[in-house]
Amino acid sequence: MRAVSVIKFGGSLTKNKDAQKKFIKELAEISKNNKIILVHGGGPEINNLLSRLNIESKFVNGLRYTDEQTLEAVEMALSGKVNKMLMAELINCGVRAVGISARDGAIAVCDVKQELGFVGEPTKIDISLIETLINGGFFPVISSVGMAKDTHALNINADTLATNIAIAFKADKLIFLTDVAGVLDKDKKTIREIKVSEVDELIKNEVITGGMIPKINSCKKAVEEGVQEVLIVDGVSGIKNLNGTVIKN
Ligand SMILES: Nc1ncnc2c1ncn2[C@@H]1O[C@H](COP(=O)(O)OP(=O)(O)OP(=O)(O)O)[C@@H](O)[C@H]1O
Ligand SMILES: [Mg+2]
Fold first, then answer.
1. Residue in 182, 187, 189 with CA at minimum distance from that of residue 243
2. Which of the residues are catalytic?
């Protein structure tokens, strides 16, 4: 089973309900003729829940510092709220969507990135559950919560997870939808094409900061591992009219 596309829906887009609606509608249409795996984050929903619980949000190079309490909130927001909302909206558009996390079926087993608390770096991706769903005619919607070897939950950056799943599936397309029109230069203009050899310099010069760091590093890895088409695009423009940055060799 090949010719799979992985689409990562940025949690950043959950703030924009119109963009989300348009995305779901387009995705439902495209999924009729294409095998798609949807991976999502949920930054704003996690931040919302943390502030309601009076827990501070902390980031290191665009990655969330995740202590035990934060991890609980991450799992509730991602696998509970955002995942079920996307799944339900897809079902509402006639798609047989199933919402799972990367902890289900041990999809993503991770090493712990100690310096970030309960944050996982996937070391083993088991695609059999996802394959079973696709072969059964279901559409997998996957939240970025994985597990440690001892089965403890771990927070995975959703860009990292989408990339690892795309590589494991030998996907031909990996598209990151986010709340900006791709990677922007210092004048806030979209950089239409970035070569993997240029990525480190863009981070070093602080053109790319925050949440764009794990995203561009994920793109670099995907290209290096043979994913043909890797894009960071504006979620407001949707997935039919791709508007953003292509990352190439
Ligand atoms: N050069 C850059 N070009 C574009 N965005 C940048 C750049 N540098 C930093 N950013 C930031 O990266 C953000 C996108 O990453 P962020 O992690 O916030 O969103 P996401 O990955 O779509 O959502 P989530 O992490 O919740 O899944 C942008 O909103 C912007 O603030
Ligand atoms: Mg992000």
1. 182
2. 8, 11, 43, 159, 215
